[in-house]
Design a protein that fits this description.
It is built from nine helices and nine strands. With about 220 residues, the protein is of the alpha/beta class. It has one domain (about 5-215): Glutaredoxin (3-Layer(aba) Sandwich). A hairpin with a 5-residue loop joins strand 8 and strand 9 (about 190-195).
Length: about 220
Amino acid sequence: MTALQHQLDEITANTRHLIQPERLAASERAIAELLNSGIEEKVLPIGAVAPEFTLNAASGQPIHSSDLLALGPLILKFFRGRWCPYCVTELEAWRDLYPRLRERGALLAAISPQTSRQSDFMVGQHGLPFPVLADPGCQVAAQFGLVYTVPEHHRDDYRSILVNIPFINGEESWRLPLPATYVISREGRVAFAEAHADFRVRPEPEKGFAAALMAQSSP
């Protein structure tokens, strides 16, 4: 299996061949500003008590974090939306790993600010077997310290590639989460946390899988 980051780097390389320099510059500026904001140092750390939440799945069914944790350690994948090729590639990697994860007694849920309708499209298109939860306005992501607002100068760049974030998310805030991977132990504590201001960088799923197994075996 090809390493996830290698696949993401290929997306970046292809993008640089296809996208106009001025649009690339706008994206690089937004990434640099987010890195310089210090947001990575403010995310909920290992050892912290994870916030409890109830969010709707793609089907509209409410999913309670406490119900998931009653079954085993929980991996939470915060992602930006189905419009992001990096997020789709990452979730497909987790899809392929998911049977092994369930065999070992752990669970996975993906969370984004997109509407349940958008998540429903995504689940069907990419064959995702795990819950994909809608987090309106990034309220749960904010409790994990992951939320930022897309700057004004970068919004036109999204519009130019027909990514209408307010429409996709069903509200006007332009708030997005950092892509992040969390592992929550059955006791409700953060056992693994990794988030990046540069959306092109993601941890390998095997790292989160290993952390979930450790959380499973911890007393």
